[in-house]
Input
Amino acid sequence: MGYGMIASDRLDATFIALADPTRRAIIARLASGDASVTELAAPFAMSQPAISKHLKVLERAGLVSRGRDAQRRPCRLEGKPLEAANEWLERYAKFWENNFQRLDALLNEMKPARKKPARQKR
Amino acid sequence: MTRRFDAPRALVYDCYTTTELLKRWMQPDGWTFVHCDNDLSVGGAFHWRWRNAQGHEMGIHGVYREIMPPQRIMRAEIFDLDPTQSESLGTLSLEEDNRKTTLTIRVLYPSQQARDQALKSCTDKSVVTAKLDTLLAELERMQTSAA
Output
């Protein structure tokens, strides 16, 4: 939980785009360089039109752009939406982890007290 | 969300359910409790609200639905700032083995839209360098821990 300013719709689109294992695998592949639709489809037991559907979701989210080369139209990973999503996740994780670290400290204080109930003040 | 603690679950349970103890750890940096109302009974209401130095407030409120000490609490939750005031179901589960506790929090949203709305209210536009595999790993974890 952490309330900052209202998110862009881009963040919604990013999370929705990433909520699919095939699309996540496409992104992971593009992270190591541009690829054509044929190359992207290769590892999957999936037709090219099916891969293209996934690519459209990624393009609408701004996560993937297509090159202009009419023959090949290579796919490229665009970093900005991922940076925003990563920033959100880091803040969320940090928020909770800070709380949990305080809880660790509190639990540590509580443990010896439980072992000597007669003598310790709480 | 899952987290392990080096303490028996009765202690972790107390820290989640006792107002005085909650105030000692569930205050994010820079935020202090404005309300920490907690009626720990079935049908009892809770309201946890924090304020920061800039005067911004955030909070969560709702009603307890199921209480099974020391292992489980289920409650209806609404974020104060959620414009739709949609209710989600939050479950806290505590499992103990060998005097160590695993805490699991699951939040069930009534619809895709409500979940996206909740996601929407928690961000700003600043940008940092992305670590792709960290992000993907976090998403896998979020998917398995959010029902």
User: Anything to note?
Assistant: The two ends of chain B are 10 Å apart (CA to CA). The first helix of chain B runs from residue 9 to 17.
